[in-house]
Amino acid sequence: MSNEIREKDHEWVKNVHSNFDRLLASLEKLLSKQQPSVFNDELLTDKEVAHLLKVSRRTLQDYRNNGILPYTQVGGKILYRTSDIERTLMKGYKEAYRLK
């Protein structure tokens, strides 16, 4: 490459910008498909979740059986991701109705 100054309308500069744009589009596409890693999320036991939600462990079992609260099972241990708990709570969130 020579020491000449490249202007923004120079073909080489346009080519570099085009390559960056394609790379950026590819990265955005990859990142949009990426699911959050379970290791970036805190895992809670059923006892911890029951205490947090102020429900019994039996109620948590009903939530699992009815597909209300996502979970994972490792061996005999049931674990919940904090993001799943928050998402489930936000699904049921209702704005307060205020009379005027």
TrEMBL record:
Name recorded for this polypeptide: DNA binding domain, excisionase family
Matching entries from InterPro entries are given as: DNA-bd_dom_put_sf (IPR009061), HTH_17 (IPR041657)
Under PANTHER family, the record lists:
HELIX-TURN-HELIX DOMAIN-CONTAINING PROTEIN (PTHR34585:SF22), PTHR34585
Coiled-coil features, chain-numbered ranges: none
Cleavable signal peptide? none
Where do the Helix-turn-helix domain residues begin and end? 43-89
**Source organism of the structure:** Paraprevotella clara YIT 11840
